Amino acid sequence: MSEGPLSDVRVLELPGAAGAYCGKLLADLGADVIKVEPPGGDPSRRLPPFFHDDPHPEKSLYFFAFNTSKRSITLDLGRADGRALLQRLAQRADVLIDCFPPGHMESLGLGYESLRQLNPALVYCSITGFGLWGPHAHYKCSDLIAVAMSGMMYLAGFPEDPPNRPYGDQSYYCASVQAAAGILTALLHRDRMGRGQLVEVSMQEALAMNQETAMQYWDLRQELRRRQGEGRRLPSGEWFRVPGIGTYECADGHVYLMIGVPGFGAPISVLIQWMAEEGMAQDLTSPEWQEVFSRLDLRLLVQLYQGADTSAAQEWLPRFRHVDGIIEAFVRTKRKQELYEEGQRRGLLVAPVNTPRDVLENRQLNERGFFQEIEHPELGTTFRYPGPPYRLHGTPARIWRRPPRIGEHNREVYLGELGLTEAELAALAGAGII
Amino acid sequence: MTGDELPLKGIRVADFSWFGAGPIFTMALAHYGAEVIRIESQIRPDGLRLTQPMPKDRPPGINLSGYYNNFNAGKLSFSLNMASQQGRELALRLIAKSDIVAENFTPGTFEKWGLTYERILQVKPDIIMVREPMQGLSGPHRDFAGFGAVITPLAGISYLSGFPHRPPVGLGTNYTDYVINPGHALVATLAALRYRNRTGKGQLIEVAQFESSVNVISVALLDCAANGRVQERQGNRLPYACPHGAYRCQGDDRWVAIAVFSDEEWEAFCRVVDEEWVRDQRFATLLGRKAHEDELDRLIESWTSQREAEEVMEQLQAAGVPAGVVQSAADTLDRDPHLKARGYYHYLEHPEAGRTAYDGPGFRLSETPGGPRGPAPLLGQHTEYVCKQVLGLSDDEIADLVAEGVLQ
């Protein structure tokens, strides 16, 4: 028995990449999550990257990332015996996670309406691209299609380029987070009423909030937010950056600065003081420039961003270019972690554009013991995983065990928990069902 | 509707959070029945109340921000001056009558108000206290300043997203503020609430936004930890799918996303496009397409750019190819027939902003359908309700508090 808060919850997770992070969240919180894989393994076991680049289904780092703390059984849902076994498993489960397209489980006789007859307390969670009903419900989806249709992709990238897909199947994370929240809400209801229900997650809807303010700009002002890349473009096409706000190249990469936005961190004068200490402020410490900076308030910035007043832009852009050039030269002399630590010490909003290695080496994460060393005895190695996204100080979430091997828990689940005999298990294995 | 009560009915949340990641989390609790009381003040309003977008052609106002309103649907607003001793005492009394207390200030702010976890336990032993600091409640960077815009680069998301020839500018938004961080806080809180219902024990939950956000690049982190590889930006491409990208269509900044994974999808794609070049043998296999991806992308765009994005999507989807319009907010709100049929956006009447759109819930429950149960509150709209119904104050006591500037 784990000490996680969900140690009383049993989950069946059917194949599909979109729901794997949901299963991981529940498993790391202590639930018993059984991953039901087709014989040969879940399709996501074939996704790169692989451990030491060896494309083997037991070595997919993609699979590892989403499947900690789970158990694995194999089961062919295309066979009658496989479906009968799933029904037995569902009878003793609290939650089932289904990422098949709408109608697929019904076609197997395993849809929500069938399974709830067997187990009225079951919480059945469906994760699909567009939900279970509506004119696009049958549309094929992938991460790229989901981020496109949600509106979030339209906002990412440079205006000259195609809109950008965010790295790393973000739609699966977002849909899974929403699914886990939906499952837990439904469990709270079940605890009180004794009945389960259907949790429906549409990836498009799960992602929609990521549009930030774009929807409201359209609703309230009929203004379309577009991708800006770096800095801002005036209606004339002229490009500018408000000095101190944006992504700057430094000695070993990039940093993001957000300096001088009223209410967020120290003002730009603190940056100029720092530059002056290093002899790199040029003329920016002069009274004329001090006077200029004192006029830079939020209203002016908004005015320039919206480009309504081109005379203001004409007045300000040459100044911005002058100041920005001096800041760029200063930033280029320093390393990103130095800019981060020293900038933050001075109260400036500075962040390094961290690489994955920078994240693994980050002081804060390491001193807080964020990463967990997970042993993979079969690979003869141990490496670090990101820890859970939250800390429950009474009932910790953690990675309880390494991701499972294909069908690793067949015997303990089918023999020990479902009560199959050795002969039955051998027959099912021989027939390729398990 | 079966008439079941919403799952979180009877749960009260003392919500001290502000900006994005906190209020969106507590809004989900409100969607499903919790009574969420925002503690705000005229003196130190939520920054989003002062932020665009607000309705056009009117002077700005503290109740008009769409940014704020969309994250606070169905909540109550209690204006309380936390700079006063009496204000802090009332806050503690409110917490004593709540199940959950939420905050996302810089560490130390709550302590400065005397609202430590230990103190709160004295008045509410089974409280669930949710704190969402940037960097965590401990560690060498605990006091570093930050908010969503800084988390995206810090967590490695910016470095990995976008085209390789561009600087790593991120996703154009404070991405993890809207689903990832509030969603993680929600999952932890609901798990803790169930645990409390089972055992009677509350607990402290810490959602360091940095740690929460880092989880969404977990694959790249494992690649680095196990293989020593630092992944780089790949634009819209994937190693195992081709074509995979966004292609220009007819009109102003119109694009369609196309993702071909299997041979069947490629063959279906070829049937729809039906141009000479799709029969080029170099494109017959995934490896062939990957080897000539730049050329293939140009050819595809020569075809899409003569068509409307919706038309390309519909034709490809009808043939079984994953495709979707790169929708703008105008598309998702006004044009997408699917979101419209499903009623994803809710239009609610707000006393000052009028009839405006709100995002619906991120998940749907068949028996207890939640969602926005009312518009966002005006600042201090429910102060009297909270004072009387929750805190049990008399009219005289309330009048004194108003006179002393505590309820502003």
* Model regions low in confidence, pLDDT < 50 over at least 5 residues of chain B: none
- Tell me the overall shape of chain A: elongated
Structural class of chain B: alpha/beta
Q: Give the mean pLDDT of chain A.
A: 94
State the oligomer.
Answer: heterodimer
Shape field of chain B:
elongated
Number of strands of chain A: 14
Measured distance between first and last alpha carbons of chain A: 27 Å
What is the strand arrangement across the widest sheet of chain A? 3-2-1-4-5-6
Major beta-sheet overview of chain B? 6 strands, parallel
Helix content of chain B: 25-40%
Overall helicity of chain A: 25-40%
What is the helix tally of chain B? Answer: 18
Descriptive terms for the model:
heterodimer; A: 434 residues; alpha/beta; six-stranded parallel β-sheet; three-stranded antiparallel β-sheet; 40% helix; B: 408 residues; 18 helices
Q: Can you tell me about this structure?
A:
The complex is a heterodimer of chains A (434) and B (408). Chain A is α/β, with parallel strands linked by helices. Chain A has helices at residues 20-28, 61-66, 80-91, 104-107, 112-118, 143-150, 170-193, 203-208, 214-221, 268-277, 287-294, 298-306, 310-332, 336-345, 356-361, 363-367, 410-417, 422-430; strands spanning 10-13, 32-37, 71-74, 95-98, 123-128, 198-202, 232-233, 239-240, 245-250, 253-258, 350-352, 372-376, 381-385, 391-392. In chain A, strands 3-2-1-4-5-6 form a six-stranded parallel beta sheet. Chain A has a three-stranded antiparallel beta sheet with strand order 9-10-11. A two-stranded antiparallel sheet of chain A has the order 7-8. In chain A, strand 2 (32-37), helix 2 (61-66) and strand 3 (71-74) form a beta-alpha-beta unit. In chain A, helix 1 crosses helix 7. Chain A is elongated. The two termini of chain A are 27 Å apart. The model of chain A has no long low-confidence stretch (mean pLDDT 94). With 408 residues, chain B is of the alpha/beta class. The radius of gyration of chain B is 25 Å and the shape is elongated. The longest helix of chain B is centred in the middle third of the chain and has 20 residues, at 180-199. Chain B has helices spanning 21-31, 66-70, 85-96, 109-112, 117-123, 148-154, 157-160, 180-199, 209-214, 218-227, 263-273, 286-291, 293-304, 309-319, 329-335, 337-342, 383-390, 395-403, and strands at 12-15, 35-40, 76-79, 100-103, 128-131, 203-206, 244-248, 255-259, 323-325, 346-350, 354-358, 364-365. Helix content of chain B is 38%, strand content 12%. In chain B, 57% of the residues are buried. In chain B, strands 3-2-1-4-5-6 form a six-stranded parallel beta sheet, sandwiched between helices. At the A-B interface, helix 2, helix 6, helix 7, strand 6 and helix 8 of A face helix 2, helix 6, helix 7, helix 8 and strand 6 of B.
